[in-house]
UniProtKB/TrEMBL annotation:
<dbReference type="InterPro" id="IPR002347">
    <property type="entry name" value="SDR_fam"/>
</dbReference>
<dbReference type="GO" id="GO:0032787">
    <property type="term" value="P:monocarboxylic acid metabolic process"/>
</dbReference>
<dbReference type="GO" id="GO:0003858">
    <property type="term" value="F:3-hydroxybutyrate dehydrogenase activity"/>
</dbReference>
<dbReference type="InterPro" id="IPR036291">
    <property type="entry name" value="NAD(P)-bd_dom_sf"/>
</dbReference>
<dbReference type="Pfam" id="PF13561">
    <property type="entry name" value="adh_short_C2"/>
</dbReference>
<protein>
    <submittedName>
        <fullName>3-hydroxybutyrate dehydrogenase</fullName>
    </submittedName>
</protein>
<dbReference type="InterPro" id="IPR050259">
    <property type="entry name" value="SDR"/>
</dbReference>
<dbReference type="InterPro" id="IPR020904">
    <property type="entry name" value="Sc_DH/Rdtase_CS"/>
</dbReference>
<dbReference type="InterPro" id="IPR011294">
    <property type="entry name" value="3-OHbutyrate_DH"/>
</dbReference>
<comment type="similarity">
    <text>Belongs to the short-chain dehydrogenases/reductases (SDR) family.</text>
</comment>
<keyword id="KW-0560">Oxidoreductase</keyword>
Amino acid sequence: MTQALAHAPRASADTETWARTGPLTGKRALVTGGASGIGAAVARSLAERGAHVVVADIDGAGAAALADELGGSSWTVDLLDTASLTDDILAEAVDGVDILVNNAGIQRINPIQDFDPVDFRRIITLMLEAPFLLIRAALPKMYENGFGRIINITSVHGIRASPFKSAYVSAKHGLEGLSKVTALEGGEHGVTSNCVSPGYVRTPLVEKQLAEQAAVHGIPEAEVLSRIMLTESAIKRLVEPEEVASLVAWLASEDAAMVTGSSYTMDGGWSAR
Ligand code: NAD
């Protein structure tokens, strides 16, 4: 498993379109799980606003392709393989990173009595320990520069529980706590730390679930959404990855300098009930 940083070639004719100036010009961002879904939308959104983006993912080909398109860099990394995430590797990965987006995540669904402890540990490692290691590695330079933005993608399950998702709910609740501690420690150094906690987002994973449920129940997908998946939501549609990404981009900007230790739900009102 390679943990090496692969710097994608910068600026071809295509990538020039992404070399934009904007509120994040001159900033370097690292997005974990950046090859797909929410992470890819976040990477695009930060690049559109002028940031140089490092796309970090276990899917090295996907990360490199997106990094190439955005004129950024890629890092092929298995964030579950924490033994190889040495201080040196991590320091190189986060070198000069002003904006760290902890996004990579996986899901397992099973009642607690049937939940494989190996799966439980994997989810906690990927979604809590790896963010801790990256934050720990990124903070010294951020403190030195007097600027840093940590943005953790949690979930409505970081604030409310759901049966059969013991590991996911535990990891997301833990990450919400870690984010607040980071905010308290980083405030005087110009570092903010916040969570974005979406409801169901239209990513390949959720679209597959939607199609499966529509087939099982023999009803249109729109009905699956309103009657099954989004019963508790006020706005009966999926969140788009770009909507999450635009909130992340705002949190990364100077405009959000006084926002820290917060968690922003984007769930169409689901958690208001
Ligand atoms: P996704 O499956 O589309 O993307 C996840 C990315 O993480 C993939 O590119 C995958 O390769 C990468 N990844 C997985 N394991 C990895 C590992 N060991 N090391 C490095 N990278 C790894 O998922 P998504 O729906 O975009 O979810 C992204 C984040 O948003 C997750 O943390 C998820 O919990 C959270 N979230 C998603 C939803 C939703 O409805 N989709 C809702 C709330 C929160």
